[in-house]
Amino acid sequence: RWLFDRAVCTLYAFCGVLFGLCSLASLTVLSTVCCLKVCYPAYGKCWDAFSPSHAAVLLLCVWVYALTFATAPLAEWGSYGPEPYGTACCITWETSSREATLYILALFVFCYLLPCLLILASYSLILWTVWVSRRAVQQH
C-alpha cells in the first residue's frame, strides 16, 4: 500500500508525469532537429547552424510543454491518485468525469501519439535520405 499521505502521492505522481513527458518531448525534439539537419541542410543556414540560444529555446519549450500537461491535474483537469495496486501514485486512469476523460484523451494524443508519430516520421525520413544518397553515390 502507499505509505505516505495524499500530498506526497500527488507530488510523486506529478514528478513521474513531468519527467516522463520531458523525456519523450526531448526525444521528439532531438529526432526532429536531426531530421532537419540531415534531410534539409539549408535549415542550419537559417538558424545560425543551431546555436546555443536555439537549443535553449527548444529546451524551454520542452519544459513548458511538459509542465502544461503535468500541472493540469493540479488544476482539477484530471487527477493524481494511487495506482490500482496501491504501491505508487500516478494519473487516475479509471475515472468517470468528463473533464478527466478529456485530459486522458489529450494526454494520449498530444503526449504520446503525436510525439511517437513525429519520432517515427523523422527517423523514417532520415533513413530515406541516407538510402537515396547512398544510391546516388553508388551510381557515380
Automatic annotation (TrEMBL):
Chief site of localization: membrane
Pfam families for the chain: 7tm_1 (PF00001)
InterPro entries noted in UniProt: GPCR_opsins, GPCR_Rhodpsn, GPCR_Rhodpsn_7TM
GO cellular component annotations of the record: membrane
Annotated transmembrane regions: 12-43, 55-75, 102-131
Alphabetized UniProt keyword annotations: G-protein coupled receptor, Membrane, Receptor, Transducer, Transmembrane, Transmembrane helix
Location in or out of the cell: Membrane
SUPFAM superfamilies associated with the record: Family A G protein-coupled receptor-like
Residue ranges annotated for the G-protein coupled receptors family 1 profile domain, each copy included: 1-140
GO molecular function: G protein-coupled receptor activity
Membrane topology type: Multi-pass membrane protein
Name listed for the protein in its UniProt record: OPN5 protein
Name of the gene this protein is made from: Opn5_0
